Amino acid sequence: MTNIIKAIQKINPTAEVSINADDINQITWLNGTTPISKADIEALFPIVEFEMALDELRAKRNKALADSDWTQLPDVGFNAAERNAWMIYRQALRDITNNIETAEQAKSISFPVKP
Predict the structure, then answer these.
(1) How far apart are CA 72 and CA 40, in angstroms?
(2) pLDDT, mean over the chain
């Protein structure tokens, strides 16, 4: 989904539109949807960009957590130091979205290194 459609849906979740070539100047409002001004749509682009960047960061984080779930099984055979290292790694992954306030921050996050 494009930034344009996401911005439109933030203003009117039931809006029905068609957009040609992902161009904000080529929006067709469908089925009686009240048109929204270009300025109002563009004003939401930073919010939409932030939400999309945060969603992407969370997806990567969730995959890294899922990929390391096996480390938490009781029969893995880790010693205390190894188990602790994985617990710290996984907590760092869970905390990775803390204090993220901009799309730039979300896009520039460095993931922790696996033990």
Answers:
(1) 48
(2) 94
